[in-house]
Design brief:
- It is built from 16 helices and 16 strands.
- By secondary structure, the chain is of the alpha/beta class.
- It folds into 2 domains: about 170 residues, Aspartate Aminotransferase, domain 1 (Alpha-Beta Complex), CATH 3.90.1150; about 250 residues, Aspartate Aminotransferase, domain 2.
- Helix 2 packs antiparallel against helix 11 and helix 8 crosses helix 9.
- The longest helix has 20 residues.
Length: about 450
């Protein structure tokens, strides 16, 4: 196979500011060993997140110049609304300033004490908004997804039998919604099969439970279905995405992912009564129903990006670039999530740092080491992000201890990715010298964003 080249040309560039390892040690100490506290100018390769960090296209920038800033009834809203309807098939579209705002509205209305939201795997802000309402989030990840280094085609799938058990144990009346995250971010950026979506949807219909898609990376998931699931090889990504959404009652989306936008999101659904309640809360917290906390120029960027993301040349390049880095690390013996996910490479920190117990946050220790060694900013997806405490104050660890290197869309070249691989392999060679961390300050929810830590 010939080299898969970037399906775009670079039109504008942004400088990277280089610093030394000694400088980074000092920066890390001042940031209390939390990459969220590091200034972006002090980062060489920023893989903290792929959310809102994409490079927009010339068409999107042109659309921004055409954005209409009318408070109500902006033409930019109707362009945005039409694009969402065409992609998802949902007749009701509610703009929000980002995905977690959509979640906050939805769970504020449907959540509350004694309620349970079930998912293949909830991501951090989704779970936090559920818990903030007083409800509880329950993950039903398939067995294959619990073993990072063992390849399987659809490791993001929901465990269908576990879903049935939860419904039976908790009662359908106490489950306001089942949420399928595509791709499964906390589970290693792994895709969900169409068959799994259909089965989960059918169970929800049997029990009269609304079934929603967390659609942040719907295009990447649709492309994986095309590549890996029988019967879809000759279907377009647009057709696959339409079928995926057809099994759901609605969706939430952060347009900062598979829309290439720097800000924005939306709620979309069939249920008019629920939509009225959501719009009422939107007006109180986000803005009027035709802008939802967004500028008209942002609505234009999202409308254009939703179409661009389904270009199969782009998706081939996107998936292949993640696979390229994954394969380089596998060849060097680095334990990573296999097969490659859609938007990020996930290192199995528990295997990488066998000498550091989960109570000392091996994922965060690795995150710090990657920054110190090469200026790479990544994020821990493990017990710092998802850990809880029991009644005695003892840590209840997360299911997996991962480090995510999320690749921004259309931003870095292959030489950047080669550099990332070299840094990870260097850290792996001296992994036995790394030490664990302890938390010295934290918040009750989403502690990983602002926590302060120190080395042990």
């Amino acid at each position: 196979m010939k080299t898969i080249i970037e399906p775009f040309k670079i039109k504008s560039v942004e400088p990277i500011y280089f610093n030394t390892k000694e400088e980074r040690k000092e920066i890390l100490e001042k940031a209390h060993y939390n990459p969220f506290r590091i200034h972006a100018d002090d980062v060489l390769i920023d893989l903290l997140t792929d959310s809102g960090t994409s490079a927009m296209s010339s068409n999107q920038w042109a659309g921004i110049m055409q954005g209409d800033e009318s408070y109500a009834g902006s033409p930019s809203f109707f362009h945005f609304e039409q694009s969402v309807k065409e992609v998802t098939g949902f007749p009701i579209v509610i703009p929000t300033h980002q995905g977690r705002a959509a979640e906050k509205i939805l769970f504020s209305i449907l959540g509350g004490k004694g309620k349970y939201f079930v998912s293949n795997t909830l991501f951090d802000t989704t779970r936090a908004n559920i818990e903030f309402s007083g409800a509880e989030g329950i993950d039903c990840l398939c067995e294959e997804g619990k073993h990072p280094t063992v390849p399987a085609a659809f490791k993001g799938n929901m465990d269908i039998e576990a879903l049935r058990r939860v419904i039976k144990e908790k009662g359908a009346a106490n489950i306001p919604m089942v949420i399928m995250t595509v791709t499964n971010n906390s589970g290693g950026g792994q895709p969900v099969s169409m068959q799994n979506i259909k089965e989960a949807s059918a169970i929800c219909k049997e029990n009269n439970i609304p079934f929603f898609i967390d659609a942040c990376r719907f295009a990447e998931n649709s492309y994986f279905i095309k590549l890996r699931e029988e019967g879809y090889a000759n279907k377009s990504v647009t057709e696959i995405a339409a079928e995926l959404f057809s099994y759901a009652d609605g969706c939430t989306m952060s347009a900062k992912k598979d829309s290439f936008a720097n800000i924005g999101g939306f709620l979309a659904m069939h249920d008019l009564d629920l939509a009225i309640r959501c719009r009422n809360l939107l007006i109180i917290t986000e803005g009027f129903t035709t802008y939802g906390g967004l500028a008209g120029r942002d609505l234009e960027a999202i409308a254009i990006g939703l179409k661009e993301v389904m270009d199969e040349h782009y998706l081939q390049y996107r998936i292949r670039s993640i696979e390229y880095l994954t394969n380089k690390l596998i060849a060097a013996g680095v334990p990573v999530m296999q097969p490659a996910g859609g938007h990020a490479v996930y290192i199995d920190a528990k295997e990488f740092l066998l000498h550091i117990p989960v109570e000392q946050y091996p994922g965060q220790a690795l995150v710090c080491a990657l920054y110190e060694e090469g200026g790479i900013r990544s994020v821990e997806i493990g017990s710092l992000m998802f850990g809880k405490y029991d009644e005695a104050g003892k840590l209840i660890p997360a299911q997996m201890e991962l480090v995510r290197l999320a690749i921004p869309r259309r931003v870095y070249t292959q030489s950047h990715i080669d550099y990332v691989a070299e840094v990870i392999i260097e850290v792996f060679a001296k992994r036995s010298t790394l030490k664990g961390l302890e938390i010295i300050e934290e918040t009750p929810l989403l502690r990983h964003f602002t926590a302060k830590l120190k080395p042990l």
